Amino acid sequence: MHAELHLDNQICFRLYTAARLITQAYTPMLTELGITYPQYLVLMVLWEEDSQPVNDIAHRLLLETNTVTPLLQRMEKQGIVIRKKGKEDKRQQIISLTEKGKAMENQAYSLIPSGMGKCLASCPLNIEDYTLLARQLDTLINSLKH
Question: Which H or E run contains 80?
Fold first, then answer.
């Protein structure tokens, strides 16, 4: 009865579905690396800048620390990262890549960009479309996170 409540009129459904399907497309490549999609996000943050406090990683991923902490604990058990106490503030946990975690960057680079390119090859969008979409999504995200 209320058109505003029809599924086809919901941007949230499209965003949710696109995110779910994109994550699903990553899964075979990430399985080959032995990691999950959230772990991949953490790794990308650490590949950009190693040795960061848990709070900074959580902030960069727009997640709460209580969401990131169990993820980091699993990654530590896998030998991908190590946790150390902060030098100035002993309550702070600093997360650093192990040699295995650092090596995974080259493995990911050899698998993921080309693998996602293949997944998206049949899509009629071009690089400019993806760039515009990314900027638009950044605008939406920035509007919603405040």
Answer: none
State the average pLDDT over residues 64-81. 97
Full-model pTM: 0.91
Residue 48: count of CB within 10 angstroms of its CB: 9
Q: What is the pLDDT of residue 86?
A: 80
Angle (CA) 11 138 66, round 5° = 90
Side chain identity at residue 30, one-letter code: L
Query: Quick one: pLDDT band at residue 144, thresholds 50, 70, 90?
Result: very high
Phi and psi torsions of 52, nearest 5°: -125, 150
H-type alpha helices, the chain: 11-33, 37-48, 54-60, 65-77, 99-120, 127-144
- Residue 89: what are its φ and ψ, rounded to 5°? -125, 105
Domains of the chain, each with CATH number or no CATH: 3-144 (1.10.10.10)
Rounded CA separation 89/100 (Å): 27
Q: Tell me the Ramachandran region of residue 134: left when phi exceeds 0, alpha when psi lies from -120 to 50, beta otherwise.
A: alpha
81-85 β-sheet, strand order = 52-53, 93-97, 81-85
